[in-house]
Amino acid sequence: MDFLRPAGWEEALAAKAEHPTAVPIAGGTDVMVEINFGHRRPEYLLDLTRIPELHEWETGEDGVRLGASVPYTKIMENLRAELPGLALASHTVASPQIRNRGGVGGNLGTASPAGDAHPALLAAGAEVEAESVRGSRLIPIDAFYTGVKRNALQPDELIRAVHVRKADGPQQFSKVGTRNAMVIAVCAFGLALHPDTRTVRTGIGSAAPTPIRARAAEEFLNAALEEGGSWDSGKAVTPSVAQRFAELCSAACAPIDDVRGTADYRRHAVGVMARRTLTWTWESYRDTSKGAS
Amino acid sequence: MRVNLTVNGRPQQADDVWEGESLLYVLRERLGLPGSKNACEQGECGSCTVLLDGVPVCSCLVAAGQAEGREVVTVEGLADHAGRRAGGTGARTGEGAGLAPIQQAFIDAGAVQCGFCTPGLLVAADEMLERNPDPTDEDIREALSGNLCRCTGYEKIMDAVRLAAARQSEGGRA
Ligand SMILES: Cc1cc2nc3c(=O)[nH]c(=O)nc-3n(C[C@H](O)[C@H](O)[C@H](O)COP(=O)(O)OP(=O)(O)OC[C@H]3O[C@@H](n4cnc5c(N)ncnc54)[C@H](O)[C@@H]3O)c2cc1C
Ligand code: FES
Ligand code: FES
To answer: What is the pLDDT of residue A289?
Structure first.
């Protein structure tokens, strides 16, 4: 094994181009587990922890460009206003020790259906900034997850950053597990209201081969809110609308039975989380819009 | 490969380090510092917790090469670390030359049974008290949520951290 230790981003891209099989290691909270247990013996480890840009974020007019290695702890502490869904999701990851090391770049690299950043990124609307010596491109988050633990990165590409739209309305994240700390999600749900475009977006974790959006549910809710003039009036979402939204979210799932839960349970729990997060976010939207008028 | 790092304030060098090796392994097997414990090697138990550039991490999940040039504090250096923070009052120098307040509190509160989880809990608890001198029970539970103990049932550990916090604020006032 070789340990590659680029001191800068360009050097890292060159190393990845030269050794496309090199395994990037950021926080190491996925990679080291695999190495410790002998599940992985990469020829090259490509250490990304010495590249300052990856640990930084920039807040622009519309969004945040979040460096791939910004640890979850920093997201929770610094980006709660701009990225509330992702901050909530970050807080549910593992433990303080893991959150001090692990970040969104690693979560995307692993692309586990259970990764907690994914539902929040899907709901907020995000793009993954991938770069290689050939150039840089933005991959829409909806196109990023290509299969179970597979993503759209080319072998010579690294994730530079994630561009996440700044919240223009309330966002929620909900996760089912056996306790508060140190649990891989049985299933998870992210919801973001986007009053600027009068749309809602969802993200579902651990209930399909990849993280997914519940598109039919989003379309149904968008139409229901539009029809009722609800974005303007701020009137409550009726129980029947919430119920239908929940059913459509459940129906979007393609879960499996595994040690953490059964497929039936996951479908059910996603529906419950969808209804609850809709209630929480909509109530919060009503409060703020009432305050504004 | 060779890895150079600072451990408990001292420059250290480890040779013949395998590229996939963890910082925990380097500390225990190459640098003769067995205080950090190896229980799970997968980030679940926290018994390997050390400070890496001041931040609590699971040393079993840090690749040795990632620690190159960095500063590590292990439980062996905790008394010194806490002493320096307190401005050298009651200064004790050298490893094992004394106990950090959090260590004394664990003993006084009876928070140590088999002791396997203790080093990691001490490092995590000490760092929390540094950041947050007046923690609520909720803060303590959160800060220690990455550390498992199979013996105590955690109540005595809670007592110990509350005790250390109380002593720290008394000390500050005196
Ligand atoms: C005890 C424990 C509990 C956990 N609990 C959770 C949890 O609750 N929720 C959750 O979502 N995850 C959890 N995880 C998994 C892990 O912490 C996360 O996936 C984390 O986001 C990984 O980030 P990292 O920086 O540590 O990644 P690393 O381990 O460094 O890398 C992960 C993958 O991403 C690749 N990679 C990293 N950075 C880049 C980059 N810039 N460009 C291209 N590829 C890259 C690596 O090659 C690797 O394949 C847990 C892990 C442990 C050990
Ligand atoms: S040995 Fe590192 S967390 Fe258990
Ligand atoms: S005292 Fe035995 S594991 Fe905590």
So the answer is: 80
